[in-house]
Amino acid sequence: MSVATRPPAVAGRQAPFTVLWLQSGGCGGCTMSLLCAEAPDLAATLSSAGISFLWHPTLSEETGAEALDLFQAVLDGTVRLDALCIEGALLRGPNGTGRFHLLAGTDIPTVEWVRRLAAVAEHVVAVGTCAAYGGVTAAGINPTDACGLQFDGRRLGGALGADFRSRSGLPVVNVAGCPTHPNWITETLMLLAAGLIGPGDLDSYARPRFYADHLVHHGCPRNEYYEYKASAEKMSDLGCMMEHLGCLGTQAHADCNTRLWNGEGSCTRGGHACINCTAPEFEEPGHAFLETPKIGGIPVGLPTDMPKAWFIALSSLAKAATPERLRRNAVSDHVVTPPAVRDIRKR
């Protein structure tokens, strides 16, 4: 939405909740995901909640000097900024100067613009795992010294520092995901606009708990295979992908299988293992994404909250009790043995 079409405040109505969105070191995938919001679509969702983009690099008409004039008006206090949204990691290199990434049309590093704007914003939101923790942009030897807004991987700090608090008193709100679900973004903004997010509504990595208190495992269509440890052996198989193919759905904090993507999809529903993309340092798992590291045949990454001894005992029992139907279907790319049809009235 352009500045020119921003809805004005009217008598008896609260002024719009204003959002300024900047992109830093990343792929733009979270914006692409946001544009896929549906039922209702993005424009209708924002309008119904009284949310207005002051500026967005993809959605706004203003460019160049017009955009810079807006940024300066925000810094001067003549334009109110309710939420500063940052997409992409902040690039601090080389040698802490930030000059690997200068904001176009200025000689000022983007990370410095972000620090100045964050100081006057009511809320600061990291959109995506790169902005939250560094993400894929910070992988490997990280030559650009990329980091998140308030985390550098799993460590507090980042571009704004561990002690940063926005004018609302909140730390950076980390809408983590690679990319984020469009509803995670819109619902976070709606909750902030309504004053319904406090410190207790964020988890230990500052992710909104409305989606981070769930696991990708919840609602996974492969759960029956998981229960019996009927495991897939190759990517096209129907079985559970935890034992051999690196799936981290039992550890990943997100509601991907209960809040579906584009109305019907998720990684595991599409046949791909969950790589835990809402977590800091997911980009550096220490092994191939589609392999499950094991010690003595036991997966290193066990399901959340499950002691190793319990997993070993339950896994042994489950494998012994696996129905032949699941055993056969788990290593096939289609159902070869359907569930038996029984008359439940007969005892």
Key traits:
alpha/beta; 5-stranded parallel beta sheet; 347 residues; disordered N terminus; 11 strands; two-stranded antiparallel sheet; single chain
Shape: elongated
The ordered H/E elements are EHHEHEEHEHEEEEHHHEEHH
Structural class based on helices, strands and sheet pairing = alpha/beta
How much strand? 5-15%
DSSP summary, beta strand count: 11
Strand count, sense and closure of the main sheet? 5 strands, parallel
The averaged pLDDT comes out at 93
By DSSP (H or I, 4+ residues per run), the number of helices equals 10
Q: Helicity range of the residues?
A: 10-25%
Distance between the termini: 64 Å
**What spatial order of strands do you see in the largest sheet?**
2-1-3-5-9
What Rg do the Cα atoms give?
23 Å
Give a verbal description of the structure.
With 347 residues, this protein is of the alpha/beta class. It has ten helices and eleven strands. The strands form four sheets. It has a five-stranded parallel beta sheet, with helices on both faces. The chain has a two-stranded antiparallel sheet with strand order 4-6. The chain has a two-stranded antiparallel ribbon with strand order 7-8. Strand 10 (294-295) and strand 11 form a beta hairpin. The protein is elongated, with a radius of gyration of 23 Å.
